[in-house]
Write a structure and sequence with these properties.
- The protein is α/β, with parallel strands linked by helices.
- The protein has one domain: Rossmann fold, CATH 3.40.50.300.
- It has 5 helices and 8 strands; from the N terminus they run ββαβββαβαβαβα.
- A hairpin with a 2-residue loop joins strand 4 and strand 5.
- Helix 2 packs across helix 3.
- Bound molecules: guanosine-5'-triphosphate and magnesium ion (MG).
- Guanosine-5'-triphosphate binds next to helix 1.
Amino acid sequence: MALVNHQTREVTFKIVYAGTPLSGKTTNLQYVHSRLDAAQRGDLVSVATASDRTLYFDFMPVTANRIGGYAAKFALYTVPGQVHYNATRQLVLRGADGLVFVADSAADRLEENLESARSLMRNLQDNATPLENLPLVLQYNKRDLPDAAPRAQLDYLLNRPEQPFPVFECIAQRGVNVFACLNAVSQIVLRRFHDSVAPAPRAGTGAAPTTTA
Ligand SMILES: Nc1nc2c(ncn2[C@@H]2O[C@H](COP(=O)(O)OP(=O)(O)OP(=O)(O)O)[C@@H](O)[C@H]2O)c(=O)[nH]1
Ligand SMILES: [Mg+2]
């Protein structure tokens, strides 16, 4: 749920990267951090294990353009992918305005992708934030892998035929489509917010974080 601070004239939206263990959620934030100007983003805070697995979450604030005289900020989070950190995942998902589901394209990770998607749905239900009210984009990451599953197979497993989620095929390690994916979810979140406070006309929704990458 967007946080509006009338004193500082800021609106903050929470975007959470969820998805399959080791699919590249943290890598997305690291890339965004590396490409944005320091004036446009804060530090990337990561709480990780010795082997670089996300232990609690990653967090990075990003400032976008202004909407209606207010500064739009995006608080980007990742959840820990490891199965036994479900309570933490559920906590980090609370209050999300938008989600990126990061799937691993490797052919031998399809089962994990599916289980992770199911776990996300359960957590959203338990948080009383059903997906109908929450923008979600799908990221098929690691498209560089020689054994990457065909997109159609990932669609069949993870997308829904009626009202399909937007899909981005990414190579987060090299930054391919990382900003396209973030911009897409940010735009949907901004449009929803705009519609909720000023039903018509649609304007000023171009405040998503952008880069030339
Ligand atoms: N080949 C390939 N490897 C990638 C890509 N993106 C990330 N990786 C690698 O995948 C591994 C896991 O990346 P992380 O970003 O830590 O994954 P995560 O989803 O945050 O992992 P958890 O937080 O433990 O669930 C790392 O070795 C990354 O370098 C990609 O596009 N292609
Ligand atoms: Mg991580």
